[in-house]
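Person: Please comment on this record:
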Amino acid sequence: MCDEDIASILKVYSGLPFQPPPGQYTVASSFYLISRTSVSPKVISIATGTKCLPTSRYPFQGEALHDSHAEVLARRGAIRWFLFEVLRCESPEQDYESPWIERRADGRYSPREGVQICLYISTPPCGDASMRMLASVQDEEMAALKDSSVFTPLGENEASRGRDNYARLGVLRTKPGRADSPATMCMSCSDKIASWSVLGFQGTLATRFLVPLYLSTIVIGEVQNELQSTVKEDCDRALWKRLGTTNGDFVF
């Protein structure tokens, strides 16, 4: 079913009025639902993007979006869909029973039994999950600049910048950028997705109406056959294994 699910997402994307200009590319990401009672997936959000604000451009009033990577924007869209689905269920003006969520005894909503939340990303997420793949496709000059087998020790709660030190695996990283670009405090998508594995992706405000929402499946696209086992290993490490789990329970 996975291929059919992704085909449905790409069909939605192809129908959008925006397409990258010739010679340029972007990253696409989508949250979608699957269910035992539904033949086709329910695409609830889709987004593209590869940019983020440098720390020097952060607004004092918080009125600008810091992180515009596709995965982060798709998450925001998914939260919006869930909140509107709750609103539809609670509206006295319409008799609506959602096939995707249900009200619990505590008043919050959760996915119905058999409903799974999935994430598609058209390329491995930035940060720890994509380090070895990036290293394999860099030209020699860039690889020499970015790679090192000797690392400056990271301080407590300190993140490695962007793509520096390809071989340093399992660490927190900020969003990547050119070597001469201003630094950013935005954490990589690998780190953000890893946090969703513990906290859920719904965010603090939505917990008033929703139980923690967890991904059951993450599908990664555009990986060459010879790199698929490496990327699978890196994604497993970056997105959940490095959090320290024992029989499914997170250990801190």
About this structure: Residues 70-90 form the longest helix (21 residues). The chain is about 30% helix and 15% strand. The two ends are 36 Å apart (CA to CA).
